[in-house]
Design goal:
The chain has 15 helices and 21 strands. By secondary structure, it is α/β, with parallel strands linked by helices. The chain has 3 domains: about 25-150, 3-Layer(aba) Sandwich (Rossmann fold); about 155-405, tm_1862 like domain (pyruvate-formate lyase- activating enzyme); about 410-465, Nucleic acid-binding proteins (OB fold (Dihydrolipoamide Acetyltransferase, E2P), Beta Barrel), CATH 2.40.50. Bound molecules: S-adenosyl-L-homocysteine, iron/sulfur cluster (SF4) and FE3-S4 cluster. FE3-S4 cluster (F3S) binds near residues 31, 34 and 68. It is found in: Cytoplasm. It holds the Pfam family TRAM.
Amino acid sequence: MNEEMMTLEPRGAGDVAAGTAPKRYFVKTFGCQMNVYDSQRMADALAADGYSATENPDDADLILLNTCHIREKAAEKVYSDVGRLREIKAQRKAAGQQTTIAIAGCVAQAEGAEIIRRAPLVDLVIGPQTYHRLPDAVRRARAGEKVVETDYAVEDKFDHLPAPKPAATRSRGVTAFLTVQEGCDKFCTFCVVPYTRGAEVSRPVGQIIAEAERLAASGVREVTLLGQNVNAWHGEGADGRAWGLGELLRRLADIPGLARLRYTTSHPRDMDDGLIAAHRDLPNLMPYLHLPVQAGSDRILKAMNRKHTADDYLALVERIRAARPDIALSGDFIVGFPGETDEDFEATLDLVRKVRYVAAYSFKYSPRAGTPGAGMADQVPEAVKDTRLQALQTLLNEHQADFVGALKGKPVEILIERQGKEPGQVVGRSPWLQPVIVDEKAGGIGDIVTVRITGTGYTLYAEPL
Ligand code: SAH
Ligand code: SF4
Ligand code: F3S
């Protein structure tokens, strides 16, 4: 049963004998795609250590919450979730079973040992830079130690994290995430990421290509490159030259089987010519770009430390659209940043009207301890934030509805990703990320087929061509 058992690190004194009952883990993921990717890599590390997955926390010897710290609500959610595990842990204990509760992710990195002080039920706190040490940390926790692993490891975790078995990759579907860049050096004044994820680090080209080839060999058709600032990625190419994300995408586009490439999240300041040229030249780089702007007022952009103006952003969008006319943009917005007046907010609406995003995430500003924004004067009242958020979302929704409405009757290429809920249906995805439901006659999972859009809404309906 443990033939896959693999030692990542020398075992400590707290080792539990191998070959005892099989162990199960349950993982719940919050936050961004990087956490989704990290949860998979932690799952791979646990699988290599003899664990199997369960969907049911009652059955789990290890309950792992991969957390997000970005807004207060997200961070506080961890504590209510842990509270709900109290009963499970007690019941399992009464049945003679040990339950280890582990907190990973950005709350783990930001709060460290404080989590165990506030929630003594927690046995293990592990930050994103040390996930390769998870199996060892779990062993120590199961031997009775309260474990806090939040130091930045000197070794590269990616050199130590085991790859998933091809079957595990296949079970995750025909689309996959691949983290190429971590951390952030931008220090926007509202944001915790530079503190929770550390400085910008790029994974080396060879590591990324090997991982992408492995994914493709297991049947993955679409890879989304991830990074907190994915377009800040840089590295040394196979040709010895300095590569940016554009060159990396060109190389990945040559991997047989990989039909679609995406990347997220990009910062406007790192959209260089090489990346824009990649959008012009690479048919398998999808015409969709998440390019957060946060606000449309130069005064607020400055206070946010975004280091660009609204006009800089609009000029950039124009250059990108000139290179790839069918590109669709999505964005992130914050309303109610300290000092934001009605006039500033109007400037955000103006910018939105000019860009016409096809999708967007908009948030009320949430003051985060330790960030400069939290200490600024003129915090905006909640009620004002509410009104502005509503107005912004109404506008964004209109644009989104216009975009999908215009697809009706048109042929669209979709990647078929999974079975539909109804028998005989499959669900694919458009180049612009909308789910598309179509009869299974259109093709099988992993196929890229052209269908005609018949109905639109959040989900699109289509007929085979
Ligand atoms: N690196 C990305 C964003 C990562 S965080 C970028 O630079 O665009 C994801 C989104 O959460 C941000 O784009 C922002 O819109 C939102 N966000 C971050 N901190 C926030 C805060 N304190 N309050 C409200 N929203 C916030
Ligand atoms: Fe946060 Fe700004 Fe860095 Fe994005 S660029 S992760 S918003 S500090
Ligand atoms: Fe949240 Fe961390 Fe991602 S704070 S948004 S999980 S980088």
